[in-house]
Amino acid sequence: MQINTFSKSKLHNSEYFQFFTEEKDLIDLATPAALGIAPQYPAFVTKYYLLDDNLKLIFKSPVTAERVEADHVRDNTFAGTHGAVQNAKHHFNPEIVKAAGRVAIVFDTYGNIAHKSYNEETADIFNLLRELRTHHAPDIELLGLLPWLEKLEADNLYFESLTKERIDEMAKVSEDTVKAIRLDLNAIHDDIVARVNARLLLMPDDICENFARKLNACIKLYADTLAQRSGRRHEQNDLGI
């Protein structure tokens, strides 16, 4: 009995990682020492977890729970700021009513910012704040809106910082990085397979044979997946798709 080979490079990243997860589980069950691959196993595990970390960053949604909460906070602040302007339109002081009317026109120009996309909301809040401070500073002071605007700006800056942090995090990982890790893992896998196959030829035992049998079953599943994918591709080519 020998461990079979197949085109691991054609597996999608998720399939590739799942295959090596199953291989790792089989190695752990048999133990590296019993398979005669104890020296090779640390490098295998290191690359396996490195691949896991990088794939998690690629697949991780940019909409993190922290960003959702930060967006909720700035939405509330925006609603409070807008509400303060609306309330001022009913003030007993006619000058405050006039100021509130002028500021309300600016808010109406931007619409309900809280219902816009993350990027649009961030940009619109910065533009709103700039317009209010540049063209309506006396009105803002009269309405007592400075604390609200400062809080809205702080909330918006914090949300923007989380966005940049996520972008920086994702920028650390590229398909080229994953590809390099996969090449290293392929080489280690091939070395492990070669050593176990040599052991099966020279001094076979139940542990190695059982490992090879289970790994071959696993390999067949993924080889069949590749074959089906290739078959569908050929069928589409034949149909001119």
**Broad structural category:** mainly alpha
- Rg, please? 30 Å
What's the overall geometry?
rod-shaped
| Number of strand elements | 0
Oligomer: single chain
Average residue pLDDT:
90
Poorly predicted sequence stretches spanning 5 or more consecutive residues: 233-241
| Helix run count | 10
Query: Secondary-structure element sequence?
Result: HHHHHHHHHH
Can you give a write-up of this model?
With 241 residues, the protein is mainly α. It has helices at residues 13-30, 32-35, 41-59, 65-88, 94-110, 118-135, 137-143, 146-171, 175-202, 206-238.
Compile the SSE list and pairings.
Elements: H1 13-30, H2 32-35, H3 41-59, H4 65-88, H5 94-110, H6 118-135, H7 137-143, H8 146-171, H9 175-202, H10 206-238
Helix pairs in contact: 1-3, 1-10, 3-9, 4-5, 4-8, 5-6, 5-7, 6-8
Put the structure in a nutshell.
This protein is mostly helical and 241 residues long.
Quickly list its features.
single chain, 241 residues, mainly alpha, 10 helices, 80% helix, rod-shaped
